[in-house]
TrEMBL record:
InterPro entries: Aminoglycoside_PTrfase (IPR002575), Kinase-like_dom_sf (IPR011009). One of its GO terms (molecular function) is transferase activity. Residues 88-270 form the Aminoglycoside phosphotransferase domain. Keywords: Transferase. It comes from the Bacteria. This is Phosphotransferase. SUPFAM superfamilies: Protein kinase-like (PK-like) (SSF56112).
Amino acid sequence: MKSMENIEDAENFEDMRKMDDTRDMQKMNHMENLANDMFPERWVTPEGILDEQQVIARQILYRGLNGRHVERFTVQSGQSYIFKPLTNPAQYGRERWMYEHVMPHLPPVYPQLIATSDQAEAPEQSWMIYEDMGQLEHHLCESTMLNATAHMAAWHVLPVATWQELPRVGHKPPIRDMLDELQQHQSATDELLRQLHLTLSAADRDRLTMLILTAEDELPLVLCHGDLHPGNLAEVEGRLVILDWEHAHLNTPLWDVYHLLDLSHPLFPRTMTPGLRARVMKVYLDKLESLGVQVERDSFAKWYDAYAIIFSLWMIRLIDGDLRNPDCVWPQEQLRNQWHETAATLEQCMEHLNGIRD
């Protein structure tokens, strides 16, 4: 794959004027709403929590890793917004940075940011307020996935030279670390494969290692959303919405592609088939080529299969640990479904890779 950084910003999207018009319309709508809700900072106390005196209704949407809640709240004007305190201390400041430096280069596929806490505030008191896009449905149909795929390809070709503050690691270990971990626990990995009636010979392991290392060397670092699973994708009245950019980082494109195609989540099950995977991959590579990035498709297919095999094996070991943990927050039935979903990805990608010659 040729370097993705040689493509000019203005050439990355097919219809820049339409993108700007949509963004301008959104800003006008928010300005009209905020005309009735001046000084949104007053909705939050100095301690970084919603002020009960300013809010007439609240709805918890989800709980973060630190126990803080993301909420929908309604103010006295009747307008509702989304309140997001810091839910993962490791990601402090990331999403604000993304909105300041990266989002202006993207089409309006993300919620508009209404207000933020002062940067001088302590991390545990930090917060962000977003537009409320209504009830989001996260049933990832094929059309939504293909739409997200084209947008993903577009942000993968954005030049990243000015975004060097972004980390090189996501919220899961790098793929090389996953590979090393599986090799260090080879007997446990082999037992897991036996449960699935699958095997990896020594030659298979060598091939996977070679493909992973080659992909890491050959592919460029690109802007990655970092957590592009079905729970962070939705469509609202025909508009694609991509949520939660706090895990954004620089990585090879395979990180985002795997999350979009095959990463399982206990709360957001989905069914992936070889046919759908192939269609999504074709849309992705076609979009890259339309933006001037030439891709050797057979190599990319092999790299992806190897990446998905290693990532899925690592995920199954992780889910196994959750299933044995009596204190795990996820229900057992959802974890078992996630286990089988990930196992299906593993089996499909192993079969596909076995059908591709080096």
